[in-house]
Amino acid sequence: MKTKEIRELSINDLRERIETERSNLLRTRMNHAISPVEDLSQIKKAKNNIARMLTILSQIENKQDNK
């Protein structure tokens, strides 16, 4: 997911999306432990997406607190 798309989401939608991505990452890691995933970049991409969403969520919350 791109930064522009993430910034368009509401705070609640963003939180839900983060939880969904975290559960998908956990599922991917579990599947990789059982039988190796062919494309390991999926795990890295998921981690980066979660970090990006958390950063933007933090920025949005800080802006609201400052107002």
Task: Characterize the structure shown.
The protein contains three helices and no strands. It has 67 residues and is mainly alpha-helical. α2 packs antiparallel against α3. The chain is 82% helix and 0% strand. The chain has a single domain, classed as Helix Hairpins, CATH 1.10.287.
Q: What level of helicity do the residues show?
A: over 70%
Distance between the termini: 28 Å
**CATH architectural arrangement:** Orthogonal Bundle
| Alpha-beta content class | mainly alpha
Strand content range: under 5%
- Stretches where pLDDT is under 50 for at least 5 consecutive residues are none
User: Could you state the order of secondary-structure elements as H and E?
Assistant: HHH
According to CATH, what is the class?
A: Mainly Alpha
Q: How many alpha or pi helices?
A: 3
State the domain count. 1
Mean pLDDT, rounded to whole units?
A: 93
Any idea what the radius of gyration is? 14 Å
Number of strands: 0
User: Shape, please?
Assistant: elongated
Biggest sheet record = none
Look up the CATH topology.
Helix Hairpins
Which descriptors would you attach to this protein?
single chain, 67 residues, Helix Hairpins, 0% strand
Task: Describe the structure concisely for a colleague.
The protein has helices at 3-7, 11-34, 41-66.
